[in-house]
C-alpha cells in the first residue's frame, strides 16, 4: 500500500522554479490549468481516463479470484475445472488490466507530447515578439529553464496526474457502490476506518504543504549557490574568495538537508496512521462481521466478499494521497510559464522600406527602466553622412539611447523618427536590414568564422567575406587558425581574443553595409595598431551613413561632426570638438582630465576624420 509521499530524490528543479515555491498556490489551481490545456485534445484524454479506470478496476482481479477461491473452499466445490477457471480469470484479468494501463499511458503520453510541443511553440513565438530588452531583464538561463524544464515538468501533470487522478477517484467510487449493493452494514464498517484514516491523514498532512514549499525553496537556493560558485570560480580563485563561496554552498546545503529531514520526520505520523487505519480496514470489519454472522444476519460468503475487497479499495484510495506534492510542482511550473506567456509583445509597423539616406530625430525622448528614469526629454538630430558621438559618465544613458534606436525597448514618452516616420511604423525586419550595431561584447555564433561574417549578407561570395575581413584587419589572424575561415567558433570558446572577436563583428558590419551605423565601444578591445587600421576601414564604411558612436576615449571621437554630452539622461552640451572646448564646460573638463598626463598640448588624433571611434 502506498504511503504518504516523501521528498523526491531527483535532481534539483530549476532555480527559478524553486525560488518561488513559497508563493505556490494550492493544488486546485494546477488541476484546472492542466485540464484547460487538455481541452484541445479531448479524445486522447477520454481514452486515457477510461482505460485508466478499467485498469484500476481490473487491478482488483486478484481480490475477486481470492474471494471466488474462498467460496469454493467454503462450499467444498474446488475441483480441477474450477481451479483452472480461477487461474484463467487471474491471468486474464491481470493481463487485461496491464493492457488497459498501457493504453492509458500511451494515450496520455502522446497527448502530453502534443500539448508540450504546442506550448513550446507558443513560448517561442512570444519570445520572437517581446522587446529585445526582455532578454536583459531575464537571463537566457532562466528563459531556457522555462522553455525546457518547466514545460518538461508539465509532462507529469498531463501524462500522469490528470488521467490517474480521475481513474483513481472514479474506480473507488464504483467499488464502493458495489460494496453497498451487497451489504450496506459491512460497507459502512469497512469505509469508516478508511474514511477515518483519510481524514486523520489529511489533518496531519496539512502542514506538509509548507514543508514541501520550504523543501523546494531550499533546493532552489542550493542550486543557485552551486551555479554561482561554478560561474565565478576563476574570479573567486583569483581573489582568494573560494572558501567564502564554499561556505555559502555549505550553508545552502545544510538548509536543504535540514528541510529534507523535516519532511521525512513529518511524514512518519501520517504514514503510521495510514498503515493502521487505511491499510487495516479489517480491524472493524472482521469483529463486526463475525458477530453479525453468529447472530444469523450475515452469511459467510458476503463476509468473505468484504474481507477480500476492502483492502483493495484502500490501495486505490491511498494512491491519491501521493498526488498533492506533485501538484505543487505543477503549480510552480505554471507560474514560470506565465512569466513568459504574460510578457507584453512589442507592436510592429507595416512599412518595409526606409529612405536611402536616413535622418534620425529623437524628439523629447524620455525613458525609464521600470521605475528608474534614464533618459529625460532628450532631443537630438542625426543627419545622414555625419557622425554623432555620445559621451558622458557611466550610467548617463548612452547605451540606452542606442537600444531605443534598435527597439530593444520603446520610449516612455516622446518619439524617434527615422526619416519622416516614427520608428514603430517600420517592420522589425526593415529595421534589422537598415541598422548595424557593433557592441562591446562578443556577438559571435556557434558556426564557422565565414558564416559568422556572412550573417551580414547571407548571399555574400567567398571573396566578399575575405574582403570584409581584410578591411576589418581580421584576415591575418583568421588565416593563422588551422582551419582558417572554416574554423567553428564553439560557444564559450576562448579561441579568439576580445579584440579579434570585435574585428569579426566589424567585418560582418562592413559586409552588411547598412545606412545606419551604431557603434557602442566597438573597438574598445583592439590594440593601438589594429584600432588605427579598423578606424580607417570604418571611416570608409561610414561615408554617406548616419553614424552614432559611443566613446569613452575622447581623442577618438574628437573629429565627429557633433559631440553630444549626456548627464543623467539629459543633453548638457552639444557641438563640434573645438566649440565645446571653447565653452569651457563639461566636455572641456572631461577632455582636460583625460589629457592631464599628456606631455604635448591636447589635440584630437589626426586620423581618421570619420567616424570617430571609441
Ligand atoms: N536592463 C536594465 N534594467 C534596469 N536598469 C538598467 C538596465 N540597463 C541599464 N540600466 C540602468 O540605466 C542607467 C543607464 O545605463 P546605460 O547603460 O544606458 O548607461 P551608459 O551611459 O551607457 O553607461 P556606460 O558608459 O557605463 O556603459 C544605469 O543606471 C543602468 O544601471
From TrEMBL:
Residues 360-593 form the ABC transporter domain. It comes from the Bacteria. The keyword Zinc does not apply. Its main location: membrane. It is a multi-pass membrane protein. GO terms for molecular function: ABC-type transporter activity; ATP binding; ATP hydrolysis activity; ATPase-coupled lipid transmembrane transporter activity. It is found in: Cell membrane. Residues 46-329 form the ABC transmembrane type-1 domain. This is ABC transporter ATP-binding protein. The lineage of its organism: Bacteria, Pseudomonadati, Pseudomonadota, Betaproteobacteria, Burkholderiales.
